[in-house]
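Query form — protein Tetratricopeptide SHNi-TPR domain-containing protein

QUESTION: What is the three-dimensional structure of this chain?
INPUT:
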Amino acid sequence: MSGSGVAAEMCREVKELLIEGAKYTANGDLEKAVKCYTKVLDLESQKPEPYVLLARCLYQTGLKRNDIFGGQQDDEQMEQGESDEDDEDMSDSEESSDGGTGSLNSRLYQFDHEEEEEFDDVEPRVKPDDEDVEKGSISEVDEERSDDDLSPAEGFENYLQGDLFENALELLYRARIMYMESAKPSEEMPKDFQMKLVEVYDLLGDIDQELEDFTQAVRDYEEAITMCQAASSEQSNDQILSIYMKLAEALKWIDPATDDGITPEQHKDILIKIKRLLKTRIKNNETSNIEEDELRLQKINEDLKALKAKPQETVFDKDSMMKAILKQALETTKRSEINDLSKMVKKNRKKPLKEPKT
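ANSWER: The C-alpha cells for Tetratricopeptide SHNi-TPR domain-containing protein are given below.
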C-alpha cells in the first residue's frame, strides 16, 4: 500500500474511533470511550482535540470512581503499591501470586528513592505559568515535559493508571500548548480556537476543584471567562454564567489567610458581578430557564451574606509586623525593670563595731 493509501486508511480509522468514542461517552460507557480516544492518540497525536476528549473522559471516570469508592480509591491504590513493594522485598513467591495484576506505570507511580533514582531522567510535571500561556510562549520545561510524559511509543493507555485527575491535567496542558502554538504571534487567535481554549480552561478548573486546588481553579475559571467574553459568541452568555457559578463555588473554599491572590474584597466584587448579571438576565427576560437563574441568584445572595458574616482577619505588612515586634520587646524590657525591686530597696549601713573597754 502506498504512503497516501496508508494515510487515508489511518484517517478513516481515526474518524471511526472518534465516532465510537462519542457514542460510548453519550451512553455513559466511559471506559470504552477512553480506550477509543487512547487509540486515536496512538494513531494521531498532533491534534489537540483528542487530548481534550480523553481528558474529559478521564475526569468523568474519576468522578464515577469517587462516587463508587467514596473518594478512597487513590489511597487504596497507593497502599496497594506500597504493599507490593514490601512483598517484593520479602519473597518472590508473593510477587508471582500477583502476576495477574498489570504493571504500574513508573512515570505515574514513584513511592521511594530507589524508583526515583532508577527513573531520574524523568522530570516532575511543571504547570506552565499563566503569563507564558497568555503571551503564547512555550517554555523549554513544557516542551521537555510534553515529549517525555506523552510519548506515543509508550502508548496513551498508561493514562488509565494512577490518579486520573492528574493524568487529565497532563493531557490538557499538552492541548493548551498545541492550541497556543497554532496561533501566529502577529495575528489574533481565531474565535473558534478561543472557544476551544475556553473549554480547556473550564475543564482545568473543574479538575482543580476535585484536587482541592481552589486557588488555581479560580485562576482557570477567570481565564475561561476572559476568553469567552473576547470571543463573544452567541452561546457565550449562558456559558459565561455557568463558569461564573463554578467560580463562586471555588471561592467559598479559599481561606484568604493561607491562599495567595484572593482577598475578601475581590471575592465580594466577583459575587456582586454575578448578581448583577443574573438580575439583568431575569429582568430583560434573556434567560432560557428563569427558575434556574432565580435559584442561582438566591445562592449568590446567600454567599454574600456568608462572606459578610465571616470575621475579617487583620492583615499586617512587613513594617507593621516589625513595629509590633519592637513594641512588644520594649514593653517586656520595661516590665523586667519595674519588677526588679533590688535597686529600690534601701539598705541600712552596718554599724561599726565598738572597741572593747580596757
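ADDITIONAL NOTE: Residues 1-70+120-182 form a domain with the Serine Threonine Protein Phosphatase 5, Tetratricopeptide repeat fold (CATH 1.25.40).
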